[in-house]
Design a protein that fits this description.
- 4 copies of one chain form a homotetramer.
- Chain A folds into 2 domains: 114 residues, Rossmann fold, CATH 3.40.50.720; 180 residues, 2-Layer Sandwich (Dihydrodipicolinate Reductase, domain 2).
- In chain A, 38% of the residues lie in helices and 26% in strands.
- A 7-stranded mixed β-sheet of chain A has the order 12-11-7-10-9-8-15.
- The mean pLDDT of chain A is 97.
- At the A-B interface, β7, β8, β9 and β10 of A face β7, β8, β9 and β10 of B.
- β13 of chain A pairs antiparallel with β12 of chain D, so a sheet runs across the interface.
């Protein structure tokens, strides 16, 4: 079996997860890393015995040994990084979103569709065993037709302070584009339907200083879908108990909940606080296996020369919906979504 | 201690619960019942040793022995029944709503406010120990400021067929007026704030025949409150697992859920279906104690000559909000609420 | 309906529960109390409008108005108090145990059996809705034949210090007689079988000072029953999380657990401790309804002139088994039980 | 990094798990398999591209390319297979138990101790994240001193019929040696103490035909430890709901439960059965990660030239205790354990 050689661009928190996962895959080599901070590059090179390191993405993709890149750079660079990698004939794994701007994404999709390389978009929930189990139940009709979906993504509150500092320096794009896209993708995936209308609200009671940035610490979206499903989303940065990603699907024959409580493990503690389930604290912990499985799927697609089940269009749609949510919030109004192409 | 003598009007499912509860209260006598069906009256008279039975409400309230009435007649009669009871100088316990029409309710409130009799409105959740425990947590600040409330009331699906038949004969007023009022009241109670704007949606996938009645088998409402809380409601008639009344409150310092699973009791069963918690099947089972406690509170108010914590205005507000939800659903639009008085 | 007049003897924690319950029953009068502390008697007399108070039990039962007594005096007095009440032709509700000594209990049973009065023994778990629900499941065969039962009764640790002081003054009889009797009764009730052999162990790591009193802060019993069921009991005084009474039944077709977590209510809290279920803190809270229901059953038996389903022999058997457990612990040996009569 | 080459002996259910795990490890090669069934060998060789296949274990270990073997042959062969592998200078991973007979195990330990090769014993629970999390809590003192441990291992009932057939052909050694050894090892690991005395019971109500084989379908053991801990074990073959491995630890400051319900995943289903958690169905599903992690640990020990934390003595002790349980059951008596060496 031939070794697939991958370069990882961007060594932030999520970049390091991909580095670690790629390094453990058999017949796969973590061949290169590119990242601005040379100190970090050295550490990672040593730890994982990485042959090449770069401070420039464009330099890295010139490396002829590479078969593929994994793009974990800031979202604004994604369109350019995807396009130049495909031009170098590299397979591309790219973290969500494809870009910040619908126009850029559309252009990028054109390049993707003209290329014969694999393009894999990082919506890891589609590779999470719990989400897959629920998807199977839904597709088998176990809960009948879907009437309502509810999906939460609430980050731990101990990250709120650093988010505020970060947002004061550079705009996050808003909580819907930053966080709700995962829930939006789940809703499209589970219902096979598009979102027609949205109403977004939000507040910033935990971090009132966000008001002047036009940011919220917790937001909601209510959505009406083509197929008459109503969806309700919460995206927040204020969970005292950990990292709360939960999805509920109400059907005509039953309902199901994924991670109604974000249990860390199978241990229950009985102490002076009551009966306590320790909780998952962050996305690396919650989606550890899913990140691994999506990377395995990327490698499988390269080997089998197939396309992943999730497409760049899915990425575009999520961004379009999230952008409509942001507009709804800003205008305090119901927004009907107009889709591209 | 003097015996308080109560007459119950209307011997439907909920009327019989009140009959049973009143009959077990010490120093309280179930003195009269009024109900159209004489057969039922005879059975109840015998079972509870009721001194007087009537087929006419107006006849019953002429009975000079009575101190109070408990009105469980169809909602359309409530305004008239409340007013004539107060004119007879009777204390009044009335099931929600005060009336179907805002104008009627306003008139009734005038009568109530001119009377020195106790007027007690049947929002039993305010007497439920779980709801009270959560209210205490909120008021103590245990979960900080409220950002979001989610509240579900979903009836068991085995009642859907009979609901459809019933709705075909006489309009229910819509799911929001019929069911969501309880959730609306909880939201107002927990937040001490009024609802500004609503968007209601709904579908009828479990009972498509409801479409021609302009009814839904499950509906949602998203609400914006004066104090920047967002609330999300589900009212439905399609729960396969039983009677699902659940409320979640997300605050800046924590969140809580009341009855996230509608457990029937403390028993867990491990069988071929998995690990199973048997579920509550209906409102009499879920709110058994709350119905008793609200009746005790009614009696206490009469004895102590005090007013209940819940007022007729609370009843009016819930109806106004529910009516706005119905309009939002019909117009498929955001509706801003204009309050009376 | 004639009023039944009851006197309560002993106004400790449990006595006051019975006082409160009796006082709310319709057509029942709390006619007398007897208790050593006159201060307490006055307070209770005032609060509940009790006609008669006594500092002597024997004086109270001379009161000709009384129909029945509720005996909540120290266990050592039970045989004498039961016998003198029956001689006065009074119906008797007596808290467990019937006596501390098998001989005394046997003599008391003789008196009970010669009397036509109702004798009701306070094993409240038999009136608890959760235990009754499980009993129904077992009797219906839902879980097949019983192979194993596990039953825990663990008191909250905040009572440990006062228990130690109490035990230093007067012997408790050991944890098996003091606490395990409830579990023993459940096992006999659920299996319809007698216990053949026991092995009891215990330790005092939370309160080492109990060693010199030959007491333990937590003990276990393993039991073999006639019908080949094995039972495992824990009785303790060290629960940090509250009052933990749990019973598990493993059958050939399924298993069930009663109160696997001692949830206080239906509220779940998500806070910095994790996902938390608040817990029941003591027996009055856990068995509030069961205490009421057993008192209602006592009254029903008096009115209907029937015998309660639980008999004095059940009381004797529990004590015989608990005594065998204590001997097993002291001798560190398997003990076969010889039953009286 | 040098490639470590491993041969796997025995391709039963567990052998195939090890084959699969070894094949995914980086810098590790699944170099050989030995197994009686040539058909199976061919399939596995093809699926995993295994260089060598054998029908004889002794032939396989002659292969000079091998660095290590993974022994998953029937337990009776373990002593001989371990010893001949060590003589060939191979590192050894061996499934529990080291042998069926205490004398054989002692002899094998001597060989192990004279060798400088890694010997790794397959007690996978020591590598399970939930068990490790609880171990950390215990070692940190979070729950104080341990008073009681309860540990269950109950196989799904759908394997009972085939077990009966299997047991009719060849004796299983009894449920304590077959199943309880895992619980015994957990107890020794968590308490750092040895078991002094045991009392074992059992019944065969689900499979009465086991009686004539002197086998039980469910058994219990009560144990007294040197450090005054009492442990209670259940081993069974009758779980209707799946694969139930649960451990509880009661300490002086708190208690914890590992897998009180054997949840398959994070999904909760609300349907006509109630609120349902789907359950784990078998040991490969429950301990998937633990099997992988113990194999990684074996490889790490080989590379680092260190000994695993679990030793052959742990294997001997578990077997000695389980044998004492079997004797206790057969003699229906308390048995004090005499340890070797």
């Amino acid at each position: 079996m031939e070794t697939i050689k991958i370069g990882v661009a961007g060594l932030g928190r999520l970049g390091l997860i991909h580095v670690d996962n790629i390094s453990t895959l058999k017949n796969v080599e973590l061949t290169a890393i590119s990242n601005l901070d040379e100190e970090v590059n050295k550490l990672i090179q040593k730890k994982y015995e990485v042959p090449y390191t770069y401070t420039s993405y464009e330099d890295m993709i010139q490396n002829n040994e590479l078969d593929a890149v994994c793009i974990v750079t800031p979202s604004g660079f994604h369109p350019q990084h995807i396009q130049s990698a495909l031009e170098q004939n590299l397979h591309v794994f790219c973290e969500k979103p494809i870009g910040l701007d619908v126009k850029d994404i559309k252009d990028t999709i054109e390049t993707i569709e003209q290329s014969d390389r694999v393009f894999h978009l990082g919506f890891m929930r589609r590779f999470d065993n719990d989400y897959l189990y629920a998807k199977d139940m839904i597709d088998r009709g176990d809960i009948g037709d879907i009437s309502i979906i509810r999906s939460y993504g609430i980050d731990p509150i101990d990250g709120l302070e650093s988010f505020v500092k970060f947002a004061q320096k550079s705009p996050s794009g808003g909580i819907y584009l930053d966080m709700s896209v995962h829930d939006i993708d789940v809703i499209r995936w589970y219902t096979n339907s598009e979102i027609k209308k949205v109403w977004a609200t939000g507040s910033n009671k935990a971090a009132p200083e966000l008001a002047e940035l036009n940011e919220v610490d917790i937001g909601t979206v209510t959505m009406q879908l083509e197929n008459d499903v109503t969806a309700f989303l919460v995206a927040g940065r204020t969970a005292s108990h950990g990292y709360h990603v939960e999805t509920e699907v109400i059907g005509t024959k039953g309902m199901l909940r994924i991670a109604a409580t974000p249990d860390k493990n199978k241990v229950t503690v009985f102490n002076e606080n009551g009966v306590v389930r320790p909780t998952l604290q962050n996305f690396p912990e919650r989606f550890r296996e899913a990140y691994m499985d999506e990377m395995k799927d990327f490698v499988r697609c390269i080997r089998d020369n197939t396309n992943p089940s999730i497409t760049a269009w899915d990425g575009l749609r999520s961004t379009e919906v999230a952008a409509a949510c942001q507009r709804s919030f800003e205008e305090d109004a119901l927004v009907e979504i107009q889709y591209e192409g």
